[in-house]
Amino acid sequence: xxxxxxxxxxxxxxxxxxxxxxxxxxxxxxxxxxxxxxxxxxxxxxxxxxxxxxxxxxxxxxxxxxxxxxxxxxxxxxxxxxxxxxxxxxxxxxxxxxxxxxxxxxxxxxxxxxxxxxxxxxxxxxxxxxxxxxxxxxxxxxxxxxxxxxxxxxxxxxxxxxxxxxxxxxxxxxxxxxxxxxxxxxxxxxxxxxxxxxxxxxxxxxxxxxxxxxxxxxxxxxxxxxxxxxxxxxxxxxxxxxxxxxxxxxxxxxxxxxxxxxxxxxxxxxxxxxxxxxxxxxxxxxxxxxxxxxxxxxxxxxxxxxxxxxxxxxxxxxxxxxxxxxxxxxxxxxxxxxxxxxxxxxxxxxxxxxxxxxxxxxxxxxxxxxxxxxxxxxxxxx
Length: 382
Known about the structure:
- The chain is an alpha/beta fold.
- The chain has 17 helices and 13 strands.
- The model has no long low-confidence stretch (mean pLDDT 94).
């Protein structure tokens, strides 16, 4: 049986995309996963990568290396290359599937003739371009990694057309689209209560996402509307991000229309949000990746058979409009978002729920399983 190593610098309990990679491939190939934390799939070989907190000296050296463009040195310091490569070097794999740009140098060090398949979850050179510190230290670093390693990959995936086009524009690659679609779930749309329209949003509590705009929109909606936000704070978050959830909780204090609920594992999301009526996501395009996002949650809304409300993010809006799944605001403001939601009746919401039901199979992960297995099969054949 051919072997595949999947590398992801993430916790797979909250990384639905990489978890799907594993499920897509494990029945056909001998899959090993190297990631932070435990792997949800007990039947897959797991190599735990431990986050090693840098010393003060390492932080100084890493910052110096980034600032003065000693990028290879910076990578070795920041991403524990020596430790991780030693941990993973005891086996040869036929294919290494590297998730996000920071895993590519490690993947090529380990490859020794293996095919390298790269999955870009974001557009790396402009990942956090809205943050000054990131632009100073990491923008050129990520550009360096892309210029050095992207020409070497045997095949490349990404999540949407905006990202794929940008990569092709600046690097000699032609990424294949593998969306963030969730698995098909056999559910029936619920009926909407005319007197209580239940909105839901789930995802990371990151201040750059400006989640307070969705909360603010509630003040412009009548008392039929309520909003539950199921929010996760990443374990590696900085102090500002960790404090953001408390800021949001303070903002909704005394507001009976909005609740913040604890996170659940990605495998539990669909059944949890199925009881709601409208899945919502308003994401101001403060950076390139936000402008071109096509996230997991949009496909989760479809599988949960919800109506959908989004801002005018191009690929999200396109999916909603083409499939007649809900409403799109004209601007990235609370008032504009509320204006799009306000006219919704229970009959219209039920109409959109049924539309979600009609496209749930088409917009499911099952088609992506075929795509990924086809790519892997072709790489092995060549």
